[in-house]
Amino acid sequence: MISPFRNDLLKDHKILITGGGSGLGKSLALGFATLGASVAICGRRRDVLEETAAELNKIGGTHFFDTCDVRKPDEVARVVDGAFSSLGQLTGLINNAAGNFVCPTEALSANAFNAVVGIVLNGTFHCTQAVAKHWIEKKQAGSVINICTTYAWTGSALVVPSVCAKAGVLAMTRSLAVEWGRHNIRLNAIAPGPFKTEGAWKNLMPAGFEKFLVDKNPMKRLGTHEELVTLAALLLSGSVNYINGDCITIDGGEWLQGAGQFNGLLTVPPEQLEQLKR
Ligand code: HXC
Ligand code: NAP
Known about the structure:
- The chain has eleven helices and seven strands.
- The protein has helices at residues 23-34, 46-59, 73-87, 110-138, 151-154, 160-179, 198-204, 209-216, 225-236, 254-259, 270-274, and strands at 14-18, 38-43, 64-67, 92-95, 142-147, 185-192, 247-250.
- Strands 3-2-1-4-5-6-7 form a seven-stranded parallel β-sheet, with helices on both faces.
- The termini are far apart.
- The model has no long low-confidence stretch (mean pLDDT 97).
């Protein structure tokens, strides 16, 4: 895909991406660096971070990585302080780190529920608060993007810890957009449909499920990482700063397809629809 942006769109931007060593977080990190940003990435696995940091350094610019479990506020504080001191004032935060698995709700242990909610909801809170404290103290503007899901508002069977956590993230996004607007701190969310990543596919996609998702999507395909990077870069760029507290869906129309009562008629043979004519 040809980027619609100038190569220096994110020059002078300094962006922390949680879970930036792999999956969509890695694509965001590499994409932002290509547009001139300095990027800080964190996650639990050092080897994964090192590999992505090496790719970032090949693109050029100054970047930073450190290990961190976003469930632990002290580790988050260390990473956030490290990112501010090695890159200078951060301008953006992407809360992207997530954990998720498929499990019938009656079989979930308390620890299983807490593991996912701890990463997605508590982790987003820890990172957002730690970064915003710096911004508010220094009277500096900032932009937060929370990577959400469409089932934050539809709900979904079999992934209830993630559903509850993402719904909380969406509520947090909207609440803080209002609370911190006066500090010139904007918060938005992005709700992706299916985008192929190793983490999501390993944890959530039994054989045949990718085909199911593609077949039921109005666009008949998965999302591309470039599409997600482009949307996030636009939100960070400063060109659309009046967007605050919103959640932008990028799913090919997937959730609407499931919601509209008569959408199922698209699979009914035309001659059967003819029978409705009087
Ligand atoms: C039931 C499970 C389980 C499973 C773990 N547990 N996997 N229960 N079914 N498949 C339980 C464990 O038994 C344990 O409970 C508790 O969860 C914590 O497990 P740990 O392995 O100790 O946790 P931890 O090492 O912290 O790992 C966190 C994790 C793991 C969430 C469990 O899956 C992870 O690290 N995931 C990161 C990658 C990921 O999930 N990516 C997907 C993101 S995609 P007990 O009671 O035994 O102690 C996404 C949206 C996708 O979010 C939408 C796609 C279209
Ligand atoms: P992924 O490939 O599994 O990546 C998740 C990232 O989060 C990894 O880098 C992981 O690194 C990090 N992470 C997990 N637990 C962490 C923790 N406790 N502390 C710090 N980092 C942690 O997932 P993905 O598919 O790229 O998803 C990225 C985001 O998009 C998530 O918020 C997900 O919910 C959302 N999303 C994805 C899809 C999709 O189709 N892929 C659809 C909708 C929404 P470590 O394991 O090294 O910690």
